[in-house]
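Researcher: We're teaching a course module on how sequence relates to structure. For the next exercise, students receive a sequence and then see the predicted structure as C-alpha cells, so they can try to spot secondary structure elements on their own. Here is the exercise chain.
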Amino acid sequence: MVTHTLLQIAIMIFAGMLCGRLVKQVKLPNVTGYLIAGLLLGPSVFNIIPETAIHSFTIISNAALGFIAFSIGTEFKISYFKRVGATPIIIACLESFFAVAFVTVALMLAGCSTTFSLVLGSIAAATAPAATIMVIKQYKAKGPVSETLLSVVAIDDAVGLLLFSVSFGIATALESGAVNILGVVVEPILEIFLSLGLGAVMGWLLNWVEQFFHS
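Model: And here is the predicted structure for the students to work with:
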C-alpha cells in the first residue's frame, strides 16, 4: 500500500513537471501545466490516479493550502495599508459581494432552490490563491499591481469564508425550518474572528522568537 501510494505521488510530480515545462514553451505559466496534468491523470480522463487515491492525499492538499495561506498572510503589512489606504479592502469586498449576489440571484431565477442558491452563491466569492501566487512568483512580478493583487486575494478569501459560513447557516436553518440567529450568524462570525485573533497572537509569538535566531 505504501509503495503504491509513493508511486502515485511520483507519477503526479513527474507529470506536473513535464506538463509545466511543455506549457512554458508556449509562454504559459507553469500552473497551467499542473492543471492539465491533474486533469489527464485524474478519474475524468485516464483514471491513472483514481478517486479513492485522491481522497487519501487530503493531508497533502491541506498542508499545501496552509503554506499558501501563510505566504499570503506575510503580505499583510501595516506599512502597506498605510500607504495605499483602504483600496484593496474595498476592491475585495465589492468583488465578493457582487459575485455572491449575482450567482445566487441567477440560480434562483434558473429555478434552483433557495438553500442551494445561497450555498453555491457563497462559494462564488472564493478565489484561487495558489494559482495567483505561483504566477507572481514564477515571473517575479513586483510593483503596485502585484501588491494589490495579493492583498485582494487574501481579503477576498477571508470575506468568502465569512459569507460561506453565514450562507451555509441560513441554508441549514431554512432546510430544517428552525431559524436560530445565534447559530446562523453570530457563531460563524465569532469563530472566524477568534481564529484571526489566535493567528495574530501566534504571529506575534513567532516574531518574538525569531529575534533570538538572527542567522
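Model: If you want an answer key for the exercise: The chain has a mean pLDDT of 82. The longest helix spans residues 144-176.
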